[in-house]
User: Fold these one by one.
Assistant:
Number 1:
Amino acid sequence: MERKTIAVVGLGLIGGSLAMALRGFEDYQIVGVARRRETVDYANVHGVGDTATTEVKEVLSRADVTWLCLPPQGILDFLAAYLGDFKPGSLVTDVCGVKTAIVDGAKRLPPSVDFIGCHPMAGKEVSGIAHAEGSLFRNAHFIITPQPGNTTEHLELMKRMGEYMGFRDVVTATPEQHDAIIAYTSQVMHVMAAAVCDDPDLFDCKGFEGGSFRDCTRVAALDVPLWTELFSLNAPALCRVIQTLENNLRAYREAIECGDREALAAKLEHSASRKRQMNLEGPPRGDSYKPEG
Amino acid sequence: MERKTIAVVGLGLIGGSLAMALRGFEDYQIVGVARRRETVDYANVHGVGDTATTEVKEVLSRADVTWLCLPPQGILDFLAAYLGDFKPGSLVTDVCGVKTAIVDGAKRLPPSVDFIGCHPMAGKEVSGIAHAEGSLFRNAHFIITPQPGNTTEHLELMKRMGEYMGFRDVVTATPEQHDAIIAYTSQVMHVMAAAVCDDPDLFDCKGFEGGSFRDCTRVAALDVPLWTELFSLNAPALCRVIQTLENNLRAYREAIECGDREALAAKLEHSASRKRQMNLEGPPRGDSYKPEG
């Protein structure tokens, strides 16, 4: 009996890590696809997937599942270029951090191809296949954005792949919900980190930075083409979140300026208790002196 | 020959960690001082310092070095209450995250007592002696804010203590410089984390948060009384930094709103290259696809 095939198109950090994390999944063979010969060679030497190739069309024609692990515009362009090349009855999915634009782009696929948008919420500050690792997705969220036409079989397959790769959970949302929330939980964090680095004091602060500064600015050295696309493809939702943050910062500034310590304490208690309620990998509440202040 | 004495007043997370980190320093005996009997008992049982006591005045009268490890207002109140009780010729220092107000408060000490302000830039999201550890200061900055009257002997002693406790470096600044920079590198990070948690979408975002969100909001569950004091004692500098951040965020919002991808990319490249130049525990520059987007 022939083994079924999962194609992973694009072997950067995410695609490479997916190809590693999926090895051994059920009875599937994992085939990496990259444009550059040296990436394919690296993949074959380092076990990124079971095998790798530059032959896109040949792989698409026999892949039961195709993961598109390219930058956002790259996924849209790939879908347009290879519309008719996916295997009929197959599942196509992606890893893009915005979903409405991608799911819209996938609507042009033939009806026999089932597209389920996906956003594996994991990453590193470095990119490229050399940094790929099969454990990248442990404890991360696996978000899928199903559409009315998706088959139950493919939805179940997505979940099994997510579980196999070690994700913490499988989260379902509409593409629009996803994009609105991700503007808040991810995109504005990157805008903020960038905005902090625009402060004229940046280069005077060496020797004075602590954990909070390192943590917040960590993502500022971002992949510019990628994030330009992500922000642009989600501009209205992102701009709303930035505006809310500007307002909330101004409210803090005014509370600090007016010098009413009780009012400031009440405001901080409000925010801090919201954070504690969220209970993300969070601190238990302490009761006495606390730094880094 | 009698051993010299270092008193650590206040055995919370920072004081407790200092008392542990200083054990074995030269020929000094480390004496912890706390108000509550149970804190003293805990310290004696767990080796937080060489010994601990509630007898403040007795310890101050013989301490060659006194570390004030209390909240900001607590340090000011302690200095006022025990002005005449420090050993003549001794060194007094502190751990407060703002320095101008503390150094001003210390100006009322008798001329025979030498005060050198200090800010050990380390911490955790939890507080209290039970979380103290001698390794807390490894790789952190040890900031001191000397004044014209300080003796060379005491300045050298501060540096030796900082090195002994495992700090990465000893950084010198005026109290005013310290407060201006810390408003940027630490205080505004905490304001930002709190402001992010004020977003009405906070509780909808479970399942969609990634590393950047966890890292940025980590410090939002802050110790409210402590940070109310820190922000209030540094209000003008902090408000200037918040205003700059509001402006920088608005500039990003406008760049995203206007839809000019090239202009947005140039702006992101500007911020990202500044971050890379800073080179804090930082990412090498990647060259292809990168998440968590």
Number 2:
Amino acid sequence: MPYFLKIFISLFNVPTKKEDRDFYKAIKVITGRRPFNLSLYRLAMKHSSAAYTSTRGLKESNERLEYLGDSILGMIVAEFLFTRFPFKEEGFLTEIRSKIVNRESLNEVSKKIGINDLIQFHQASKSLSPKSIYGDSLEALIGAVYLDKGFAPCRQFIVKKIINAHFDVEDLIHTITNHKSRIIEWAQKENRELAFEILEINQENKNKQFVAQIFIDGAGQEKGYGFSKKKAEQDAARTTLEKLGIS
Amino acid sequence: MPYFLKIFISLFNVPTKKEDRDFYKAIKVITGRRPFNLSLYRLAMKHSSAAYTSTRGLKESNERLEYLGDSILGMIVAEFLFTRFPFKEEGFLTEIRSKIVNRESLNEVSKKIGINDLIQFHQASKSLSPKSIYGDSLEALIGAVYLDKGFAPCRQFIVKKIINAHFDVEDLIHTITNHKSRIIEWAQKENRELAFEILEINQENKNKQFVAQIFIDGAGQEKGYGFSKKKAEQDAARTTLEKLGIS
């Protein structure tokens, strides 16, 4: 169906039943657009714990929409950061993205925009995964907006209503972790002797590649690789932190 | 710039220098579309090991485009599988997707469509990460197509030239792993005694939640959770396989 026709129809598409109309309004407020196919949004709000009542024998829950919405959100946030920070490297972009799309952030946003009032789930399931229900439903909602409205409106929904409304990107930058300084802090606190060593330099023509290793109390830890000393050290610090389970 | 204008200009946009023209033609064959901004594609083919010659002091390589292309590819493949398999669950879709977007597959595709002839990289870098250069460049190319041509043409490029041309989705389904049967096979081969037990059923109203545990030679292994016995067992098998490092 052409998009202008969808818009035209959706003007007269307001449901007549009170219950449906309330849901329609809630979705309109949350997404900023008139929903066209309301059943998509209903499905998005149906957690798998509430899905056994399906008459078709098929399990109907928001899991598939969540899978779709998750990948859309990841892509739009990636593109947003790519254009927002034209001179930042890929590692930086990846780290900021993970601060936006992680479970806790999405749960927070989900509650703030009022999705928690719309979700259908079964109480018992709260004990299994109490936290992820809200974030999952937000992703499912994104999937529904994409299927109902298309790529550009869905992108606008994510950028306006999720990223710009709920994340201060400048703030996120400041909390970005510097692996090397983190491991130095840790070593000072724990009174361990920490050393960074550059093991190898592969040089051909103008390009140098570095291999760094971290030593704690003289014992060799993980190695790191990079096209600069700094990068190789950061890489080594990151993997060592991971291996030692320091967060 | 409006899209029709881009198309119009790109008809007369063929570069005059022989070297550029060859590159232009190669990109046109690979992507199926006339490139508009050729420098985007040049950047996509520039591996970070060949990036130190930048005159601006800024490191110019395909890493940022790769970051963008990676997320776009993930999303398009997710959407492709979502519509291709309307009755399959999210776990199935995730597993098939990972079979398409993993490094080895992308490296293969990258070589098949001829990207390897266009990539600029420094020989020494082959020793550090010999394999990923091709797959990374394919992702960077996807990022370039997205920025140059927009979402819909980029999706068409991915679906036609990557998924449909190089993956037999029916084939992929058959290689999808069944965790439970894998762990049973493993136990038979290793002569271990394997048992699945359902530990708990949380029942309220119509919904049941199951907790399964695996026992190997009587010793309790990982637990699994799910809304059916089968799912809980699959989940337990998956986590146990992971913990034991069986691949």
